[in-house]
Amino acid sequence: MKRKITLKAVLLAMLLFSGATARAQHSEKMLRYGDMNQWVVRKIHESAVIGGKTKTLYEVGPNRTIEGNKPYTNAGGSPWGTSNVMAKVMGVVKTNCSVTRDKRDNGYCAKLTTHIESVRVLGMMNIKVLAAGSLFLGDMAEPITGTKDGPKSLNWGIPFTARPKALRYDYKVYVTGEKNRIKQTGFSSKSTVPGQDYAVTVLFLQKRTEDAKGNITAKRVGTLVVKYGKSTAGWVNGATYEILYGDIRHTPGYDASLMGLRTTDYARNSHGKSVPVKETGWAAPTETPTHLSLQFASSHGGAFIGSPGNTLWIDNVRLVY
Asked: Is 286 helix (H, G, I), strand (E, B) or coil?
């Protein structure tokens, strides 16, 4: 009898241990506000010269409403920034809203849309600009004062020192299926850009270094890029994508245009100045990062390029360890 009890106890202990190990290997952690159920609602009053309408902008953060043309800074410790922005150029206030909260079950999700933003001046001028929806880790300095200041206003990435195995989230996609994209900057006529537009998820882990002059360089620690070129029939829950560590240039499916080293992203240095983050090489596969960059976007081609109508819904963003 004692032997049977002992064997039973050993087997039970082994099962408990193996179960605990499995949970540890597949544990996940929701990014702050990553359930997309809390939103800051902003009421911005555009200038009378362009119509004087009150526009609603959405930001991922604690539930609250902000009235008036107040520059936004991430509220409640939210790590999320969006492509929604208030601009003030030569005294004229204009907004763009390409990320909205959308109803999902008993809560909300984020809806990212590529669309044409129009600016009508006194009924005489109609400027049209293509804007893609972007949800990212970081923040945007407002107000934007010119088209050249846009990239410099974005603070790309957040401090982060963990080494997750994967990224997991729920998503839904609608893509127009157009064979080519358009480029519409508002300063020239609409042009055609070869190639289909697709929604994209981009995650980079970096080890950043700042020199005495405030310049930021980085080694790429981890990489994840997912492209969505087909519409889904509905929600895909718990989609999980592996993060690749180290030099991935010889990995099957490597796309240099999206996964290669970058030099055009901006971040604020220790002096509060916006400077380019220049990636100088690939880190060792075992390196520990200092920063995490994560972006969801409804179009992939960069500023002013995409297919109007492309839409990406995102919910429940978490990291797997």
From this structure: coil
